[in-house]
From TrEMBL:
Pfam families: MMR_HSR1. This is Ribosome biogenesis GTPase A. SUPFAM superfamilies: P-loop containing nucleoside triphosphate hydrolases (SSF52540). The keyword Cytoplasm applies. CDD domains: YlqF. Required for a late step of 50S ribosomal subunit assembly. Has GTPase activity. It is found in: Cytoplasm. It comes from the Bacteria. It comes from Paenibacillus sediminis. The lineage of its organism: Bacteria, Bacillati, Bacillota, Bacilli, Bacillales.
Length: 287
């Protein structure tokens, strides 16, 4: 589902999260492992302030494992705990309560030293639409809780979900807007399907992806689409369009007169990429 993020909605979304922050000990910032920075909210630091938090890189099953490792290092250097998961299969999900405990260790130790019995850690998941918040909530809960595609501005009674004996999770996630200002961010989000095709032109989105993959994932491209000629100059649009045409030819996207139907080729290419048919691909690297 696409959300129209008008300034008023952003203010409201921000206020809703700040209200929820009062109730919790730790934030789980969910991002997409294939495009970690592009799938973050631009004001996240300002919104979360000093609240302890971890970055959880979801959909790691679709991301390039080598690049994901680099991102983990990148965030470590920034002083933030980050680790990959796959909310779908559950890979890495059990690390979340453990990391929450680590993040709050000093506070918990102080409580124990005072003879107090520490209560369960309260957590909130935040992230942009489509990053997998509802899938993760259901996975942590071990049952179906949140309707996928939750909307900002729709308030329902909040409840705590027990995650083991040491963590509780708010059942409604915090939904934040992505960085619209940067066009490349928009393209990266669109490549993954997080932004609907009606917003950005499908051929432009495919062009962006074909250019990136020709540069960084050529063997996978060549094998999947039987490509012979790798672009020499990635900044030359004609060479990228040639690759798109070769993909179209391979997939039978031919119009009357023999011209390649680039729109159809773009749709097919993006569908295969999103379905993981080209293998595990990241479309943003830290270095
Ligand atoms: P939300 O808008 O953040 O709540 O996102 P959803 O939980 O609705 O997930 C958006 C889409 O991503 C759905 O189609 C999910 O099935 C899919 N998804 C969520 N987590 C994963 C994951 O770890 N791996 C893969 N491959 N897909 C996922």
């Amino acid at each position: 589902m696409t959300i129209q993020w008008f300034p008023g909605h952003m203010t409201k979304a921000r206020r809703q999260i700040q209200e929820k922050l009062k109730l919790i000990d730790v934030v789980i910032e969910l991002i997409d492992a294939r495009l970690p920075l592009s799938s973050r909210n631009p004001m996240i630091d300002e919104i979360l302030q000093e609240k302890p938090r971890m970055i959880v890189m979801n959909k790691a099953d679709l991301a390039d494992p080598e690049v994901t490792k680099q991102w983990v290092e990148y965030f470590k250097k920034e002083g933030v705990t980050a680790f990959p998961i796959d909310a779908y299969s559950g890979y890495g999900v059990k690390d979340i309560p453990n990391q929450a405990k680590l993040l709050l260790k000093e506070k918990i130790d102080r409580q124990i030293a005072k003879g107090m019995n520490p209560r369960a850690i309260r957590a909130l998941i935040v992230g942009i639409p489509n990053v997998g918040k509802s899938t993760l909530i259901n996975r942590l809960a071990g049952r179906n809780i949140a309707a996928t595609g939750d909307r900002p501005g729709v308030t329902k009674g909040q409840q705590w979900i027990k995650v083991g004996s040491e963590m509780e999770l708010l059942d409604t996630p915090g939904i934040l807007w992505p960085k619209f200002e940067d066009q490349n961010v928009g393209y990266r989000l669109a490549v993954t399907g997080a932004i609907k095709e009606e917003i950005l032109n499908v051929e432009d989105v495919a062009f962006f992806a074909v250019k990136y993959l020709s540069q960084y994932y050529w063997p996978q491209m060549a094998e999947r689409f039987d490509l012979q000629k790798r672009p020499q100059d990635f900044e030359n649009p004609d060479e990228i369009v040639e690759v798109m045409e070769a993909i179209g030819r391979k997939r039978g996207c031919i119009m009357s007169g023999g011209r390649i139907d680039l729109e159809k080729a773009s749709l097919i290419f993006l569908r295969e990429l999103r379905a993981g048919k080209l293998g595990r691909i990241s479309i943003e690297a830290p270095y």
